[in-house]
């Protein structure tokens, strides 16, 4: 939480910190990563995890290290690769030796490995059990060692709902079964299957379990162990204190999280690693089935339309007909006829099917309104089925994911300014943008009227309503020490864009945090200076301003410049015209640097919702442009000209090649 790293342009660093993509970039082919365990060695954190090799489709054990409290990770390689699937790499220390006990249920054994050259070289130390145990761990408690694991191979065992315990005087065994085994054989949602490393807190032992009720690995549950002896075991569930995201597939753990490792460092601080997924288990198969069904429906619709128009007919090939014999039939010929019974039935079916269009077309006449309506409905069903099939086959999982930079993710604060007459816009705005992946918080600058309560807004992130004493556009750039991110997206409450466009803009800003990075370019030119729309900038293939109605800025820099003594005259002009605050900020940036100070990102689409509500601030476009032209002249006198600057559009990024 709140760890900033300049070297990876993350202010702050955001989850996830390790993905299958980060492994692939490091030369380790991977489809997914899961089951993370931490091993602490001095000031270095080592992260062991399951990674599924995208070439062999087998689970291996990967390892990474961090020297900055887990904010960034360096991939070291594959620590353990066997001929069978490996996962759940439980790593621990015993008598100065480092051991790993991964799950190897596919082999039917529970194996213990010892580090020869930590962390990448291991040797098989011992087979602890000739049983296909899954997600097992060993702990030292009350003077004895305890082995927890699940065996789903037994008759009557409920998968993901079974748990057994064994005890020993040493983690190397031999192991004796607990008197109450199986401890659990219950519904898979209870949390019987282990979901990470147990931990101690305030003298109490806690076990992490998996809830697999809705889907495999839906969430983790925490259980406080009240009794653990050779004869008895009792635990009670306690709150995890982890708030699940409401961002759906846009969150890295929006669909499930099934593993947790919590440890206290020597400094007294706590650190935890958790895995997560954007989609439920089996999502690719689910999408394939629905996509296939949709395309099958399209085929059926095409056939129906063809039959109704007499284009499609059922024809049986001539070679399916039984041969004609002019002489007397014998038993052999009767056998031939029986073998052709199926083809005879097919011919009769096709004959009847070919008569269907005549009777149907007699009722559904394409030339009538009723006939056209039926055909239109059939066509719409086919079109909808086609779109659905394309969506499930080629549309991915529906997530609008963030864009990593140098392997790391970050977050930004979304800030908008509004008043009571635009509450409808605000509700739709908050509901949509709060579910964008990198949004950490939404700040609503309330300029006029009675503000709503935060609970009135459907938001997946915290919403802070900042009520202002004065109705001023300058409030948009007011210094706010409560902002927890370096980046602020200034976004008008009447602009709707896709989360993917927002994420692309954020990625561009992270590469150039000294610029105003946004979605609405303008080119101020002419003598005298004249304010014009985006078409003018595109026609002249360049821009020198980005409107801050939709733009990323470094709030510490931007707000400091805006409220400096130098900008006082400009702020007064903004209050006088009730306009031009975005133009002023562009001039302040240009005045502070001779290099490029603005960057354009082209959105796939953008909608101005004020057109539907009638509460647009600038209803008269001509008057609005006239005022802004005056602002250009005045700001040029105050802060120097901007007309001499011009940055060309990136044709490749903006899709101009087409």
From TrEMBL:
Cofactor: Mn(2+)
DNA repair is among the record's keywords: no
Cell compartments where the protein resides: Membrane
Domain Glucosamine inositolphosphorylceramide transferase 1 N-terminal: start-end pairs: 1-277
GO cellular component terms, semicolon-separated: membrane
Keyword terms, alphabetized: Disulfide bond, Manganese, Membrane, Metal-binding, Transferase, Transmembrane, Transmembrane helix
InterPro entries on file: Exostosin (IPR004263), GINT1_N (IPR056442), Glyco_hydro_beta-prop_sf (IPR023296), GT64_dom (IPR015338), Nucleotide-diphossugar_trans (IPR029044)
Family per similarity comment: Belongs to the glycosyltransferase 64 family.
UniProt-recorded name of the protein: Glucosamine inositolphosphorylceramide transferase 1
